[in-house]
Amino acid sequence: MNNIFLLLAAGLVEILCLVELVALKKEWYYAFIVVNLILVTLLGSKIISFFSYSTNTGNIFYLSAVLGSLILLEVHGRRSAFLSVPAGILGVGFFVIMVEFVMSMSGTGVGRELDQAMFTLFSDMPRVAFSSLSSLALTLPVGIYLLDKLKGIHVDRFVRILLAVIVSQILDSIIFFSLAFFGTISPSMLAVSILTGFCVKMGFVLIASPFILVRLNVSAKT
Question: What single-letter DSSP state applies at residue 24?
Fold first, then answer.
C-alpha cells in the first residue's frame, strides 16, 4: 500500500504542475518535459509492486511529459508540440553525456566511495535513456498528429486527448519496456509490467484530465 500512496502523491504533484502549465509560456512546457524525461532516465529502471503487479517507477513521469506536449498543442499550436520531441531528446541526451563524463573521472579518497555509489545509481541509465528516447521519438509524434487531426474535426477535447494518449501509450509501453527490460526480467514479468504500466498511465490520465480541462477552459475565457 505504501507504493500506491507514494505513486498517488507523485501523480498529484504532476497534476498540479500540468494545470499550472496551461497559463505559462511554451518554454516552461519544454523545461517540464525535459525534467520528467530525466526522471524517467534516472528512476525508470526501478521495478516496484503496484497492487501486487510489477511495473516500473517511470510511468507517471513519462506520461506527464506526454501530456505536457499534448497540452502544448492545445495552447500553443502544432509546431510547438512537435518541437517538444527534439527538445526532450536533446535535453536528456545532454544530461546523460555529462553524467557519463563525470562517471569516467577517477575519484580520490572519499571520492572513490562516491564513484561506486554513482556507478550503482547510473549503471542502467544509458539503456533506460535509449529506451525512453527511442520510444518518445517514435510514439509522441503519433499522439501529437492524432490530437491535431481530431482537433481539426472538432472532436471533444477530453475525447481527443484520451484517444491520443491511448494510441501513443500502447505503442510506448511495448517499445519502452521491451528495450529497457528484455533479457533482464522474465518474459512473463515483462508482459505484466507492460500491461500494468499501461493501466497506471490510463488511470493517471483519467484522473488528471478533468483538472487540466477545467484550467484550459478557464484560460480560454480570460
Answer: S
